Structure formats: structure tokens, C-alpha cells
């Protein structure tokens, strides 16, 4: 789920939505104010782990991928004036949502290739099967929409939204120390109280309805806790992920992402300047996945106003989601012809067996933020 989420998306910041999208927006805003540049960057980070694969990414030119990789086309170009997402009929499965940096409007791309403008401030989540969409509207109302039909319901106020890997449940954490769980098959809702002791922020819901709790954004990582989805009682406390000595999960790395297997949680671990995407298996109780991430590229510099320094957009990658083929990264980079202008963004996949990095989709400017199903 990985920033991007501000001049374009003042959105979740004003709504005080504290998921990874919003954190991304805040990061982008700070960069824009500091550099006085136009690009919007996103921060949908997540990762952490040990074992299995440890193959460095290949370098060189980014290959074009055939259409259909990870369920996405080889290139996405935003439509100038896409129609508003209709409410009187279904539109089919969503494969991606993106923010148009020129219009500050969100759009949904469906499996049949159509693009629809979303009425609201922000797309917050898409279920893994692409059927369900959660949006935040300008009046701060959060809406759950069934894209296969016309069903919709307003959700209680909260901090973000998370779907279970099987797309059967949705959790909306509240600011009051509770969470609302929606059974998507019946539309039934239950409210679960949460232990106030940290880590106490809901960052994932499992197929069973049980919850994964993690640290608040900007707070030092202090482990994970698993909570019963019916009572809120803590079933398991995971204080130590078993990271090697000297490796940490930085506060800015964001929340945990639950993989499609319903048992592996992903986050970013750092050691010095180097980052890795790691996966912790909740069933085995240990780190089972590790993918070294490319180092961030340095931003170009030049003299700015009043004796200051102006920076170009950095070359960075953020976790976008976990696909069946492997983790997906959103790659944001400066233009090759002008290091002070933003270039075309790309979605890349990390091969599960080798760790090789391959471009799946090119995102034409001005797309700088995306939300992937799951």
C-alpha cells in the first residue's frame, strides 16, 4: 500500500487520516515547501525480514513488461476528462487507482481498461479482488462502494481502512481506541475495543477477522501485537522480529502490510544507508523473506532563492502492494533530460524466487501516486 499521498492531496492531512497514503502526502508537502518544486512524491513504504532470498537487484535500463503483468497494462496514461464513477451501475474490477497531479483528482482504472473519476478527496483502499473501493469525500465522509454493482454505505469516522487478503472483511480503525469491522458478504458491522497500550494502531485485518496492531506513524517501531477480532483481547505479543544486530525499522518506514498468504507481514528494515524489504511469518514466528532494496539516488542541487539550495526530485522506491508475483514498488525518479523535473513513474515487481527487479507498468506524468488492490 506507498507517497504522493499535496498541494495535490491536502486531503488526508486535513482529514487527519493517518495511513501510509497520508504520511506520503505529508512527506511530499515538506519536500515541496523545502525545494519549491512542483512534483509530488509518495511514500507507501513497508518492509522487513531475514532468510530465503537475498539477491541484489539488477541495474541498467528498465525493461518494458508485456501487458497483464500483475494485472496491470504496460503503460497507464491519465485521461484528460474521465467520466465520473457511475452510481447506477457496476463497472467491474478495479486494477489500480491513481492521483492526477495536474487536476488533483483521483481516478480508478478497471480491468476492461476504462478510467473513472472518483468523487472525493482520496482513494484509501481497494480490496484484493478489485471489487470494493473505499474513498474519503470532501465532507470527510468515508464511503464503501461495490464496483460490481451499485451497493454503497457510509463508514464510521476513523483512521484509514484495511481489507483482509481474501476481500471478505474491512476494518476501519477509530481514533477512540476501537475499530469497526465490516463483513462484506452480509454488510454486518461490529465494533471492537482495543487495548490502549502501544502498539495499538490497526494496520491489517486477517481473513479470520483478527487484527494486526503496529506502531503509530512517526513512532519508533516497538513490535507487533495480534488481537482477537471479536473481543479485541491481545492474543499474541511480538516484541522482537529477530532482525540482525544493527538492523532497525525506522519510524518513518510506515506501517505493516499483510501479504496475500494471510500470514506474512512486510515492512522496511534499514542498516546504515541500506534498506531491505523483509517479511515476518506470523505462523512460523520468524523472518522468512528478505529483498535488498536499491539505494536512494541523490537529488540534484542548485543555488536557490535567498542563498538557499534548491533540490530536484530524488530517485526513490516505495512499497505499493504485495502481488501474487511478488512485492510491487512504486519507482519515482527525476527526468533523464532535466534532473530538476519529475520523470515518468514506474511500477516494478520483485521476483519472489530471485529478487530480480522488473518494470511492470510505466505511469505517464502527471501520475505520482497510486493505490493497488489489497
TrEMBL record:
Source taxon at top rank: Bacteria
Gene3D superfamilies referenced in this protein's UniProt entry, alphabetically: YVTN repeat-like/Quinoprotein amine dehydrogenase
TM spans (from-to): 33-57
Keywords for the protein's UniProt record, in alphabetical order: Membrane, Transmembrane, Transmembrane helix
Region (Disordered): 62-86
Name assigned to this protein: Uncharacterized protein
Species of origin: Dactylosporangium matsuzakiense
Amino acid at each position: 500500500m506507498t507517497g504522493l499521498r499535496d498541494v495535490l492531496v491536502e486531503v488526508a492531512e486535513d482529514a487527519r487520516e493517518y495511513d501510509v497514503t497520508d504520511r506520503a502526502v505529508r512527506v511530499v508537502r515538506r519536500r515541496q515547501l523545502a525545494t519549491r518544486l512542483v512534483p509530488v512524491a509518495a511514500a507507501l513504504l513497508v518492509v522487513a525480514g531475514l532468510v530465503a532470498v537475498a539477491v541484489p537487484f539488477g541495474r541498467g535500463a528498465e525493461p518494458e513488461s508485456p501487458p497483464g503483468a500483475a494485472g496491470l497494462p504496460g503503460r497507464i496514461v491519465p485521461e484528460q476528462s474521465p467520466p465520473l464513477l457511475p452510481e447506477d451501475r457496476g463497472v467491474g474490477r478495479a486494477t489500480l487507482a491513481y492521483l492526477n497531479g495536474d487536476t488533483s483528482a483521483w481516478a480508478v482504472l478497471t480491468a476492461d481498461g476504462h478510467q473513472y473519476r472518483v468523487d472525493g478527496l482520496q482513494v484509501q483502499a481497494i480490496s484484493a479482488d478489485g471489487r470494493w473501493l473505499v474513498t474519503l469525500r470532501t465532507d470527510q465522509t468515508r464511503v464503501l462502494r461495490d464496483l460490481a454493482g451499485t451497493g454503497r454505505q457510509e463508514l464510521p469516522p476513523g483512521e484509514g481502512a484495511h481489507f483482509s487478503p481474501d476481500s471478505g472483511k474491512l476494518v476501519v480503525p477509530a481514533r477512540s481506541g476501537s475499530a469497526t469491522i465490516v463483513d462484506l458478504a452480509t454488510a454486518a458491522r461490529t465494533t471492537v475495543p482495543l487495548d490502549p497500550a502501544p502498539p495499538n494502531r490497526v494496520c491489517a485485518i486477517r481473513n479470520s477477522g483478527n487484527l494486526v496492531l503496529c506502531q503509530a506513524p512517526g513512532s519508533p517501531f516497538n513490535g507487533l501485537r495480534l488481537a482477537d477480532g471479536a473481543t479485541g483481547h491481545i492474543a499474541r505479543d511480538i516484541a522482537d522480529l529477530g532482525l540482525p544486530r544493527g538492523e532497525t525499522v525506522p519510524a518513518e518506514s510506515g506501517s505493516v502490510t499483510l501479504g496475500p498468504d494471510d500470514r506474512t507481514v512486510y515492512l522496511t528494515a534499514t542498516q546504515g544507508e541500506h534498506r531491505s524489504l523483509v517479511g515476518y511469518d506470523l505462523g512460523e514466528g520468524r523472518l522468512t523473506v528478505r529483498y535488498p532494496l536499491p539505494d536512494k539516488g541523490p537529488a540534484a542541487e542548485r543555488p536557490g532563492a535567498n542563498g538557499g539550495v534548491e533540490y530536484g526530485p530524488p530517485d526513490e522506491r516505495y512499497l505499493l502492494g504485495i502481488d501474487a508475483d511478488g512485492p510491487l514498488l512504486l519507482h519515482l525518479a527525476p527526468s533523464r533530460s532535466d534532473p530538476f523535473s519529475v520523470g515518468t513513474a514506474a511500477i516494478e515487481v520483485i521476483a519472489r524466487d530471485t529478487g530480480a527487479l522488473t518494470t511492470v507498468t510505466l505511469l505517464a506524468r502527471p501520475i505520482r501516486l497510486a493505490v493497488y488492490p489489497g
